[in-house]
Design goal:
alpha/beta, Rossmann fold, 3 domains, five-stranded antiparallel β-sheet
Length: 333
């Protein structure tokens, strides 16, 4: 477990970052909070208060109660994680419900392409994505609502780099990668943490310079300068000498109409070094066949990326903000 230290200066920079890149609230605005305030949702409290806006804080997330509160409290802004969006879409809510929502900001984990397309159809073109992490909250890059065109290449990106950040993609030799070349995302910004608590060795490994850190996320820039995230460096699977990024396999499986959730990990294998394994949760009332899912993936992925095994399961282990915990899936293996 790592503890990231922030100072009053870095938190002031976080507030400025949110106001400059994500949202500019007025006195009439209300943001609803149902995710833990110690995570990304809580960083919006101070920016809204500084502008005279209001925070409506719920004790937890229940889709029906959440939507009802949005209507009753005349909520204009929401901060969500992809799991919350999936639960909202699975909830039967009356289309006559009068919502004042103008902006839904999401992040914390990748949003499946099929999910964001369904969300835009249900709630309108009001979704803004941010990419950040505890070490550099909140927005390293942003994809605004007007760039969420369904079917566009941009919708799969993490957006453009924030105005108050500098991002470089570095290879293993710490040289800058070219356009389209995958490397580690590094960021320099005033909102970067002061360091990890009582972890000098980790700090030396993480900081390239004051206020410049390695994120441990793999990604690349396209020819328009938009950032695309591939996966965590630690989650990459090496099978038969090839690199497989779990997120790509998960995106394909999530495009299957019967799949609700999935998580992909590598398992030790005598032949391949690691074998790709997918844990899949079916949608309610849907019966899935592991072989059928492998065939589905085979028509959409290179052969070495197709899961050697698909494990059907009722639930997937998640963090407090709804991220699938791949290390817990590995423990199951």
């Amino acid at each position: 477990m790592k503890a990231a230290l922030h100072t009053q200066a870095s938190y002031g920079a976080i507030v400025a970052n949110i106001l400059a890149n994500l949202v500019s609230p007025t006195r009439d605005d209300v943001m609803i909070h149902a995710a833990p305030l110690i995570h990304a949702s809580g960083t919006f409290i101070l920016p809204f208060w500084l502008r005279g806006a209001r925070a409506h804080v719920m004790s937890g997330f229940d889709p029906q109660s959440y939507l009802q509160a949005c209507a009753t409290e005349r909520v204009t802004h929401a901060s969500v994680v992809p799991t919350m969006v999936q639960m909202l879409l699975a909830t039967a809510f009356p289309h006559s419900l009068d919502l004042a929502l103008r902006s839904v900001i999401y992040g914390a984990s990748p949003m499946p392409g099929a999910t964001i397309a369904e969300a835009i159809e249900a709630f309108g073109p009001i979704f803004t994505q941010y990419y950040g992490q505890t070490e550099a909250p909140l927005a390293i890059s942003v994809l605004p609502a007007d760039e969420h065109a369904v079917g566009s290449d941009l919708i799969s990106s993490a957006g453009a780099v924030s105005v108050d950040a500098r991002v470089s993609i570095l290879n293993k030799d710490l040289a800058v990668c070219g356009v389209g070349e995958i490397g580690e995302v590094t960021v320099e910004a005033p909102f970067v943490m002061a360091g990890y608590l009582d972890a000098e060795a980790l700090n030396r490994e993480t900081f390239l310079a004051p206020k410049r850190i390695r994120t441990r996320d793999m990604g690349y820039f396209d020819d328009m300068g938009y950032l695309h995230l591939v996966d965590r460096a630690s989650d990459m699977i090496i099978t038969g000498g090839y690199n497989v990024y779990p997120r790509e396999v998960e995106e394909v499986l999530l495009s299957h109409p019967g799949v609700a959730e999935c998580g992909v990990v590598g398992r030790s294998d005598a032949t391949w070094v690691e074998a790709v394994v997918a844990f899949v949760t079916p949608k309610p009332g849907v019966s899935l066949d592991a072989g059928e899912l492998r065939d589905f993936a085979r028509t959409r992925l290179a052969g070495y990326k197709v899961p050697k095994e698909v494990i059907l399961t009722g639930t997937l282990p998640k963090s407090a903000v709804g991220k699938v915990l791949r290390r817990a899936l590995k423990e199951r293996l």
